[in-house]
Design goal:
By secondary structure, the chain is of the alpha+beta class. The chain is built from two helices and four strands.
Amino acid sequence: MPIIRVEMFKGRSREQKRALARELTEACVRAVACAPDAVTIVIQDVDKEDWAVAGVLVADKVAG
């Protein structure tokens, strides 16, 4: 059973998440020849203050 984990910044709409889940499921079904109901997707929204790149919080990069 494939499990796909997606971490992304907060702010996407429910419809965007639906579309992402649909597209990821379809791609997984094609790539690994599994049934759609075997694919689990976990979407985790992350605050920009909880994500850092190159030692700098993304929230600080956006603010500055």
